[in-house]
Amino acid sequence: MSISRISRLAIEVASYEARVTYKCSYAVIRSARKIVTSISGQGIRSQSTATNDNQVQTESSWRSYVRQWQWKIPLGLGVYLLAVLQWRYFTRRHEINKGPIEGLMVECYLSLPLRITSRVWGGFANLQLPVSLRSTIYSCYAKLFKANLDEIDASLTEFPSLSDFFVRPLKPNARLVAQNTNMVSPSDGRVLHFGPVTSCKVEQVKGMTYNLQHFLGEPNWPHSENSTSILAKNHCDNYVTSLLHNPENELYQLTIYLAPGDYHRFHSPADWTVRLRRHFQGKLLSVNPRIASWLPDLFSLNERVVYIGEWAGGFMAYAAVGATNVGSIRVYKDQNLVTNTKKWPKGKNSEDADFGDLKLEKGELFGEFRMGSTIVLLFEAPKDFKFCTEVGQKIKMGEGLTDCKISERRIWN
């Protein structure tokens, strides 16, 4: 049964329960009115009876009637009914105006203890499974999430836990790195958005944006001399320009969503040099495209690790964005990185680490997610740079993002 049919069935059941509750409540009120009227009439006809006796008789009759009707509405039914009605309201509103939600729903979602639940899930996923059950569990998982078991370079029994299975290695020839370009896909997944970045409002999915300045933070990393004057203009209107090493170039972005069934390791997209790592703790909201399509600034709200440096075309920022139930983000050459931990002290927004001259080659293994998440790639290139991909396309690590090569030039001093 599809999700839409289940939703419609839930709405119909909730509506029926609401109508029944309303009719029963109306019947109770109508009966209560009759009793009160009857009691009042008897009191009027027997005026010789003392006033106190009438009051006692009225209260006694009313209490006996109430005791006969022990109306107890289960808490679960009430919550369920409210949730369905709220979802129905949101669905109708979303169908009319496909835009961001706001107000109480956002506040409720942001206040959920997703960091705690993610750590609990991470602990559960790290539990060692019995060898006899591993093949069955992993095969069911692969069937449910459409993971390709033929690509795995190991036996299923060799993965002690679900977390180890999530970051499974592939056979040596399972992913070929394109040689006709110096910019390739850093991971498997689905392309959510790509294209030039002309302002701080950057597309996270079609029609929904996040703030680039909040996503990367202040541009106080090393720059070449020819961009020092531009760097001083760190207002939002000039932020994109401040990132470019060559003002004649343009900034581009690529966003890839890793579903639970995808290969969860990510690689270097090009030959480049990492200068700085910036870690934002943030939230652990879901990065599912459906959520990203109605929650603005999702990427700049979530926990993320941004590696900043240079490649042949100029500036590059490589971001691994955390999500709900992502036990951790691990980067192999960054042993000091620890994600999905307890909240930092109030006022601490980010943490920087200087990498000096860390060289990475195109296609080199870079890190891993302990569940599905998102990779955001921001890089500088000439204005004639053309992507050879499409929005919604399933892409594999190593596939070329463009057919052209960018000539290398020295940018850093």
TrEMBL record:
Superkingdom of this protein's organism: Eukaryota
Name of the protein: Uncharacterized protein
Organism from which the protein derives: Eretmocerus hayati
